[in-house]
Specification:
By secondary structure, the protein is of the alpha+beta class. The protein has 2 domains: about 5-60, no CATH class; about 65-190, Immunoglobulin-like (Sandwich). Helix content is about 15%, strand content about 50%. The chain is built from 1 helix and 16 strands. The strands form 5 sheets. Strands 8, 9, 10, 13 and 14 form a 5-stranded antiparallel beta sheet that branches. Strands 12-11-15-16 form a 4-stranded antiparallel beta sheet, with no helix packed on it.
Length: about 190
């Protein structure tokens, strides 16, 4: 038998073995990840859901109302989830729901349990259609584990009936973006 034919069969056999092993390992990996899981947090379904892997549930960080920063070179993720309480004031009076129209108000945020440095924070409002308007930001917060942040008075037009989200956002580093870590809902009634 020709030596080239013997080598050809060896290559085909080796390739078939590699493909079989790859299929088996792919099958094992697929068996270890179960179906995507629907996750409800405070009555709202998280966009990306979660995954069941080896009997553990994994939820994407972006859905957990936490700021995160991935440091690829160090192989670590920094997650910051401060305790934030948001209060809305019209003058000296706290409020929640409003009627349609323009309203002058400010936002008071009490922040504690900040165990990592943050670059800056901001407060923004999101209307029912998803349009976001920044209200105010503050920088130079390194080393503060708790603080208060009160915005100036501003006027906002609640022109649509529905739910508006006043969000408290954290920016961990100068190169990262802002991520919402807390929110207060304002319902516009009529």
């Amino acid at each position: 038998m020709d030596m080239r034919v013997k080598l050809g069969w060896k290559k085909i056999t080796a390739a078939a073995l590699v493909i079989t092993l790859m299929s088996g390992s792919t099958l094992l990996f697929a068996d270890s990840i179960q179906d995507k899981i629907r996750v409800l947090m405070n009555g709202r379904e998280l966009k990306d859901g979660a995954y069941l892997i080896d009997n553990k549930i994994y939820v994407p960080l972006r859905d957990m109302n936490a700021a995160s920063d991935w440091d690829k070179s160090a192989g670590k993720v920094q997650v910051v989830k401060p305790n934030v309480h948001i209060f809305l004031f019209k003058g000296d009076t706290a409020f929640g729901n409003v009627n349609r129209g323009k309203l002058k108000f400010n936002v008071f945020s009490q922040v504690d349990s900040v165990h990592d440095d943050v670059e800056s924070v901001k407060v923004a409002i999101e209307d029912p259609s998803g349009s976001i308007k920044d209200i105010q930001s503050q920088s130079n917060l390194q080393g503060k584990d708790n603080f208060w942040f009160r915005t100036y008075d501003f006027t906002y037009d609640f022109d649509t009936v529905g739910k508006y989200s006043v969000g408290f956002y954290v920016k961990l580093t100068g190169s990262s973006g802002y991520e919402k870590v807390a929110e207060k809902i304002i319902t516009v009634l009529k």
